[in-house]
Amino acid sequence: MNRRPTQPSPRDRHAVLTPSHPGRPRLLRPKRVTIVGGGIAGLAAAAVLAEHGAAVHLIEREHSLGGRVRAWDLDGERTMSRGFHAFFRQYYNLRSLLARTDPDLERLVPVRDYPLVGRDGLRDSFASIPRTPPLSLAGFVLTSPSFPLRSLADVDLDTAFELIDVDFPDSYVRYDGESAEAFLDRLRFPDGARHLALEVFARSFFAHPADFSAGELVAMFHTYFTGSAEGLLFDVPDDDYDTALWAPLGEHLAEAGVRIETDTAVTALHLPERSDARAGGWSVETTKGTITSDALVLAADPRSARALLSGLESTGHEQWLSEVTSQRNAPPFAVLRLWLGAEVDPSRPAFLGTTGYALLDNISVLERFEAGAAEWQRRHGGSVIELHAYALGTAHRGRAATLAREQADRDAVADQLLADLHEAYPETADIPITARELLIAEDCALADTRPWNERPGVSAPLPGLVLAGDAIRCEAPVALMERAATTGFMAANELLAGWRVEGTPIWSPPRRGLLRRGLLGALRGRRSARDR
Q1: Residue 493 domain flag
Q2: Which helix (H) or strand (E) holds 322?
Q3: Confidence (pTM)
């Protein structure tokens, strides 16, 4: 693969570029790398390694690529996915990965608005809010019905200033042991703003705020509201994830020499026989045979990764293994996709975030942006609706949550989601359902309150091993799909650096808040100097 990808240029002049380490353009002698996991992290690592001459063998358990952002065919005209994902403009490294097959990112289409609606009737919109901080935060406060100005007197200003006084990664460490719920209690935002603009971040991590890291919450608030000029609007693929994104990328990687093996589970890992990091010798047992390689990128889902590492023979690094394998998964989530016999109200947005309902967290009207759903609508009429529920197994979800957590009564989950839909979109109560598909899964990482430095990073003390995925620690204020792409690039870079080969540059949103940069940062520095 000789063509180097074009890196999309950030709009934000404060975005941070970490240049690649120096080295040769390509490996002089081929190195064999096995990648476990064909999600975003594994695909990102595969792309960079192949571009620099590595012989990559990627193993994926499922039939299709994409990991927790995959989609699959049901009957030739209907598809199913693991739920809606927003492709924010701050996702620089994910967009760089997608640009390998779509240089102008034409397969990503903008969603004009991102309304959030509470069951109590409060509704927030981000379409008219300025993108550049601090105007973005001021615009939200001044225009949001969930944030009446009289409530400003109740806000704890010291805590509020923490939202713009950040410096990552130190700001992650600052909140060790504190939950998002505890931080929100300190902040004392009005209830409406707390639910619509803040708790939504915790729920999008499939976590209840009591279990979710305050550091991660602050990082996301910084990335979307107070620290980045990219704004809070986002793009979505113009078709299902496999058709629009992962199948083309898989073909691109295959053309570059990457061997992609799907429908294959990894059952065990074996360490190199020698401790020399250059010696190689990783052995990966799969349901179809054994693969040996010089290096290993472990980019599987969190539970699978923990199980594989737990099965390693004595390594001499038991403390590191204990920290990695003690990580927890988030509660289960549910996705209910409905094919309706009549169209929903044309005024409904393509995507709606909700709060206050028994289970429902968002509603997507898929024919508004997915070509496959639009084609189904053209043939059959009606609408294709997707309902998403986060963090089912948490106490605030009530009886339906318990049933979902135990997966003892899937019908109870589907029935409650339908009841929530009928309350949010009353016209759907009288529309017949021609088909439906329910997914309940529990394979997402939990960004809990444990110390930041105890979370696993990309580097590992075992020779030739690197980790990647959205459960993996990185210094930049990124999360979810972007953390997966970023750590995938980082994992590839670390291996390439050990072989004296250059890697790929990595972008991130600004790492410092408004109080630490520009004029405000200078004034803050002078004040700190006087205080000393």
Answers
A1: yes
A2: helix 318-325
A3: 0.92
Per-residue pLDDT 10s for the chain (532 aa) are 544 555 667 888 889 999 999 999 999 998 999 999 999 999 999 999 999 999 999 999 999 999 999 999 999 999 999 999 999 999 999 999 999 999 999 999 999 887 888 888 888 777 777 777 777 777 776 777 666 767 777 889 899 899 999 999 999 999 999 999 999 999 988 777 777 666 666 677 888 888 899 999 999 989 988 889 898 789 999 999 999 999 999 999 999 999 999 999 999 999 876 544 444 589 999 999 999 999 999 999 999 999 999 999 877 888 899 889 999 999 999 999 999 999 999 999 999 999 889 999 999 999 999 999 999 999 999 999 999 998 886 544 444 445 444 444 889 999 999 999 999 999 999 999 999 999 999 999 899 999 999 999 999 999 999 999 999 999 999 999 999 999 999 999 999 999 999 999 999 999 999 887 664 554 455 444 444 4
Looking at the fold, whether 314 and 369 belong to one and the same domain comes out as no
Query: What whole-number distance in Å separates Cα of residue 394 and Cα of residue 371?
Result: 35
Residue type, 70: R
Q: Are residues 145 and 177 located together in one domain of the fold?
A: yes
Looking at the fold, whether 266 and 281 belong to one and the same domain comes out as yes
User: Which two three-digit tokens encode residue 29?
Assistant: 């002698």
* The total number of structural domains that make up the chain: 3
d(CA 473, CA 457): 5
CATH number of the CATH domain containing 51 = 3.50.50.60
Same domain, 325 and 472: yes
H or E segment and range at residue 310: helix 302-310
Asked if residue 433 is part of any domain, the answer here is: yes
Q: Is residue 462 part of a domain?
A: yes
Q: Within a domain: residue 511?
A: no
In terms of residue numbers, what domain contains 374?
331-441
DSSP readout, 347-364?
Answer: TS-SEEEEESSSS--EEE
